[in-house]
Amino acid sequence: MSESSDMEGSHDHYKMRVNNYAQGAHLSFRIDSNPSGPNNAVVWLSVVYINDEEYGRGEGPNKRVAEENAANAAWRLIKSLGSVSR
């Protein structure tokens, strides 16, 4: 499956993967999301934090997509650190 920045059609559920990883490792997990821009062209920015450390950022046309994009970035970082086997 493609790792494009628009996760709208994705079935990978990176947010769930990162949450499950954090829970399994007894770490805190949160996503902060904020909109910006004019009402007719809002862009959401989401940031994933694990134990209050930033792990990934993502943008999207809505909160769900931005969160999934941020979680995708976090998941890639977690994998690159060797913290998970998948």
Main β sheet profile: 3 strands, antiparallel
Helix and strand element order:
HEEEH
The whole-number mean of residue pLDDT values reads 88
Poorly predicted runs of 5 or more residues: 1-10
Rounded to an integer in angstroms, the radius of gyration calculated over CA atoms is: 13 Å
CATH fold descriptor of the domain at 30-86 = Double Stranded RNA Binding Domain
Level-2 CATH architecture of the domain at 30-86: 2-Layer Sandwich
The count of strands amounts to 3
CATH class of the domain at 30-86: Alpha Beta
| Overall 3D form | elongated
**Structural class computed from helices and strand pairing:** alpha+beta
Give me the number of helical elements: 2
Strand order of the largest sheet: 1-2-3
Helix content: 25-40%
Distance between the termini: 14 Å
Residues in β-strands, percent? 25-35%
Domain DRBM: 13-80
Organism: Lentinula edodes
Pfam families: dsrm (PF00035)
Protein name: Ribonuclease III
Write the layout of secondary structure elements.
Layout: H1 14-24, E1 29-36, E2 43-50, E3 53-60, H2 63-80
Antiparallel strand pairs: 1-2, 2-3
Helix pairs in contact: 1-2
Description:
It is a single chain. The chain is an alpha+beta fold. The chain has a domain at 30-86: Double Stranded RNA Binding Domain (2-Layer Sandwich). 34% of the residues lie in helices and 28% in strands. It is built from two helices and three strands. The protein has helices spanning 14-24, 63-80; strands spanning 29-36, 43-50, 53-60. It has a three-stranded antiparallel β-sheet. Helix 1 (14-24) crosses helix 2 (63-80). The longest helix has 18 residues, at 63-80. The radius of gyration is 13 Å and the shape is elongated.
